[in-house]
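Inputs:
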Amino acid sequence: MTLLHWATISPFLLAIVIPFFFKYFKRIHTGWFVMILPLVLFIYFLSLIPVTSSGEVIVRSVPWVPSLGINFDLYIDGLSLLFVLLITGIGTLVVLYSIYYLSKVKEKLNNFYVYLLMFMGAMLGVVLSDNLIVIYVFWEVTSIASSLLISYWFHREKSTYGAQKSMFITVFGGLSMLGGFSLLYVMTGTFSIREIIANVDLVTGSALFLPAMILVLLGAFTKSAQFPFHIWLPDAMEAPTPVSAYLHSATMVKAGIYLVARLTAVFGGSAEWFWIVTITGLTTLMWGSVSAIRQKDLKSILAFSTVSQLGLIMSLLGVGSAAYYFNEGDNALYTVAILAAVFHLINHATFKGSLFMTAGIIDHETGTRDIRKLGGLMTIMPVTATISLIGLASMAGLPPFNGFLSKELFFTAMLNVTEYGIFNLETFGVILPIVAWIASIFTFAYCLIMFFKTFTGKFKPEELDVDHVHEAPFGMLISPIILGLLVVLFGLFPNILAYTLIEPAMAAILPGILEPGQVFDVYIHHWHGFVPELFMTFGVVILGTLIFTTMKKWSQSGFYQGERDIFNHVYDGGYAGLINGAQGVTRVQMTGRLRDYFIYMCSFIIIILGYTIYRYDVLSFDTSNLSPIDPYMWVISIIFIGSVVSVPFINNRIGVIIVTGVVGFVVALMFVVFRAPDLALTQLLVETVTVVLFMLAFYHLPKLKKEPVNIRFNLFKLFIAVGFGAIMTLVSISAFTMGGEAGFASISDYFTENAKELAGGYNIVNVILVDFRGLDTMLEILVLGIAALAVVTLIKLRLKGSEDV
Amino acid sequence: MEILMSIMIGIVFTVSIYLFLSRSLLRVTLATLLMSHGVHLLLLTLSGLQRGASPFLNFQADAYSDPLPQALVLTAIVISFGVTSLLLVMAYRTFKVHNTDDLEELRGSADE
């Protein structure tokens, strides 16, 4: 375990002790104890920036399940460092914010911070691990933590609904992803991402390339709320606002982005990856931004806005993957998309984090997030209004904020696509910048709606439940102010990020593109001259304002009235169908009849074994190795078969006992014939006791009734029974004749050779039982003892009162 | 001999499955008894029959019958005796409590 490993699991360790802090330090808000950890981690990871920016990587390895190739390998390069800085940095701010947001008296802070720390640790694990299986495990832990946090106010029905929905969708994706990872293992023989990238030829040449890609993408798309799996994110807004700001905008939903970025080196360069990722991203961008302007709840607007911005980043990663097709080194025509993706990832975390926090402040101070009830808050909450303005202007893509810069780069990347001339882009390529532009218009429009509906217009105190609305306490404002300052800082001086964070991340997303020693040229400009991007921005501003000013007209339409996503019907219908289907199957299957269960079991055994026998051609056994049949064996056989077959026909209790007794004694006789004297002795003894036991029990039991005659059912019973018996005969013959072909030496010889030497006994069977496998025999005696106790209990014990059994 | 034994094993299993599917709890108890006989014979048959002397080293024989399946079966006989007696007592107790040994009448589940 290295320092890096301890850093990764430290949130889990802190999560264990946090409940005690909550219990014993009631007067101090538990958040203060929690906040130290992400802060320390943030500073620690900041200190690693010089390492990654010089193009080096840090690898720390701890074996976990080495026999399966699963090692807890941690790996820091530009991309993972960017993510851990987001996780710890935003994490610190969110915890600070939550200290003022959640009351230390009313809320169950121990639960909250345990879940939050669990998430933080899992998220660090996802972005730092090199091993796909380790990533998968942490990935699912983030899903669980997310669900727990969404249902934090679990007494609200909507919270549990949202938690369940996010759980279903993300775990479905996680399992698909596991399938994809397994296929990658099948192709390359390793779970290590670095080794897979090194052997990428094995993947691209394989027939499993496309299935693996689709399965992995399902995982990434569900996690990053891509269309049509985005429906869980708006419902996840039932979580406390710090959680929404942290998990559902800055970090967890970017895990899918991370995975796509990380695996670009594996799947990138193919037309399928390019089109699937790009089209999904653009559809999500469009759907999210159009849906956002229908929302009336501040957090719902932000949720759909997050969906749309995630789509934007996703589409950029899709477009950027073409760099692998051309493989021309640092050619900005192809790599600018990756630059834009990384830059926008950072920007989105800053402006969306601050916007969620201000939305939370408004909710906290006014008691509502409904934009129809809000208005005129600018004079009452000037600081909040300013931060919101900065965040929204950045999101809308206005200069001089950072969102403007990344949006310009986004347009550049989309316009570049039309010049690629591959993957049918010469015909369809022009659609990409058009969709990007239209979606940006809607983005601009919902930013306007959000700002003006909340902060301008008439203040409506009669609509609000609280008496006196005022600005939030200073502590609550610290985090959004810091994020707002970052928005301005990155907007004015984007190049402080260029070679510290962005370039190393680009190099990590596109390994192998550059010659060793080269770096990507990252220079982010404010002014490009009168280029198409600038005119696109002008168009966005004009048309977006037009949509906002005509809001009165279109707000009457059904489009604005309904705010639930139509894909929710699919989910709700599917969920109800699943429950009904499961109940139906259970009703049919669980009849409470013993024999139905037996019929299922026997049928499946017959089908599976029958198929195996047919498949492996077992019937062609050779008969050369059989032992001869002694004449008296025929007599024994006839007695045996006769008595066994007569058992079902006897309806007399004494008769049945005698016949089964005969069966048992014949079995003992066979043991003698087969040179197994110990077995014969035991069998004789046991059979005698069994017969006595049956006699005793039958005295108390009712007479055997004749089974009701139902020819069809009896024939069915006979059919199942004969089928089962025939299968067992075949199994017996084939196991005997083919046992030698398995290629394993028999272990029996060991006992024969060593019985005298090691155990000092001549009777090999006894030596095996009491010496070689003595412990097993002892436990067997224990089992018998338990059975005997159960027998005594069943006979003697009577429960008090009328209730028996 | 192994083929003859295999056929007999098949018959034992056939009869025991047939009994398992009947309505009387007693017949089900008998079915477990028969099935355990079938399993014991099956285990012995798998390793080949009459391949040498009884597994006593003082016989000084060239070959002995395989001792391992015998040890397994010995254990199995004892355990199946435990199972049979437990089942028998359960049948007894069920009859005492419900006054029937008909599985069709005993049918029911916890949520009914």
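Chain B has four helices and no strands. Flag for discussion at group meeting.
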